[in-house]
Design goal:
Bound molecules: zinc ion
Radius of gyration: 16 Å
Strand content: 15-25%
Oligomer: single chain
Structural class: alpha/beta
Number of strands: 6
Number of helices: 5
Distance between the termini: 13 Å
Number of domains: 1
């Protein structure tokens, strides 16, 4: 099967959930839905990518170093771990961002894997053309990642039932901007139908 679709999960890390250093209000509530998407993509053998904030202690992104954010997701810290309820398969590709002191790392398209390969190269090299984005936070990293994906010429779907933002006003604005840029909104029911349709079509062809 062609790997033309990929699930991109943005920053579902402990520090961005309740009890973390920079919590998105009720951020962890999207995890059960994300797990359903993970199963759907696994079943269809499509790639799954998880991005993570992975900051050095001296990141200029932190308030203590002149930035705007409390210290969060410091390399190898407990808060930087993926939330334990997120069922990431072993085959998921992990990409890290904000890894150098001068870099904020809002967009997952600035993230790289362990071999320093950037996200767009990783997924383009296996034939991905459409990406499905969920995660945290709608008004920051999800928005930045979705807009980068458009610039990189991907067809982009925002999983509206699997994202959560810091501010509801800023999240609503982010979603309108994403729609203006041609990003389509999907929920799990619609996504399942899209995938089911694809399977039926393949069978008919065979
Ligand atoms: Zn950060």
């Amino acid at each position: 099967m062609k790997k033309d679709k990929a699930l991109i999960i943005i920053d579902v890390q402990k520090d961005f959930c309740t009890g973390g250093a920079l919590p998105v209000p009720n951020g962890e509530r999207i995890i059960p839905v994300l797990n359903k998407y993970i199963s759907l993509f696994k079943k269809n053998r499509f790639p799954i990518v998880a991005s993570r904030d992975w900051h050095p202690e001296d990141s200029k992104h932190f308030k203590s170093n002149g930035g705007v954010w409390p210290k969060h997701c410091v390399v190898k810290s407990d808060g930087a771990k993926f939330h334990p309820k997120l069922c990431l398969p072993a085959s998921a590709k992990i990409v890290s961002k904000g890894t150098i002191p001068s870099e904020d790392g809002y967009s997952a398209f600035d993230a790289r894997d362990n071999n320093k390969k950037k996200l767009s190269r990783i997924i383009k090299s296996i034939g991905v053309k459409e990406i499905f984005i969920g995660g945290l936070a709608t008004d920051y990293c999800v928005k930045a990642s979705a807009l980068s994906a458009i610039k990189e010429n991907f067809k982009v779907y925002l999983l509206k039932d699997a994202v959560k933002g810091i501010s509801s006003k800023a999240s609503a604005d982010a979603i309108s901007l994403m729609r203006e840029k041609g990003i389509e909104l999907l929920d799990f029911r619609k996504a399942s139908k899209l995938f089911a349709g694809r399977v039926k079509y393949t069978r008919k062809e065979a």
